[in-house]
Design a protein that fits this description.
Distance between the termini: 21 Å
Number of domains: 1
Order of helices and strands: HEHEHEE
Number of strands: 4
Strand order of the largest sheet: 2-1-4-3
Radius of gyration: 16 Å
Number of helices: 3
């Protein structure tokens, strides 16, 4: 199978922002003040097509989930031997140590 036909068979992956935790004590102790750290709202969804970063999704968050999105897009799953109830999903957090956002990733069957 050539690379072009492999791309045609990739599943879309829905990425849903589920929860954000904020560590005020760590921010006060270590972070330089910044006005706007995260543009993503809880409940916001994105769809990865051809395992590419969706427009509007933070590049740093994408870095933390890209490998899982690629695996789900290829139809893989069952990460860590049954970690998730839905074997074609994953719960991943972004790299922000002060205000991590948790994202639910799920392969779509369309």
């Amino acid at each position: 199978m050539n690379q072009h036909s492999d791309q045609l068979s990739l599943k879309r992956v829905r990425i849903t922002a589920m929860r954000q935790t904020v560590y005020q004590d760590l921010m006060q102790r270590f972070e330089n003040p910044i006005e706007h750290a995260c543009d993503i709202d809880v409940g916001q969804t994105f769809t990865s097509v051809d395992a590419q970063r969706p427009e509007g999704l933070c590049p740093s968050a994408w870095e933390s989930m890209q490998g899982f999105v690629m695996a789900l897009a290829r139809g893989e799953g069952n990460f860590y031997d049954g970690w998730m109830q839905n074997p074609h999903s994953a719960m991943i957090s972004c790299n922000d140590g002060f205000r991590p956002m948790s994202f639910y990733l799920e392969a779509l069957d369309d």
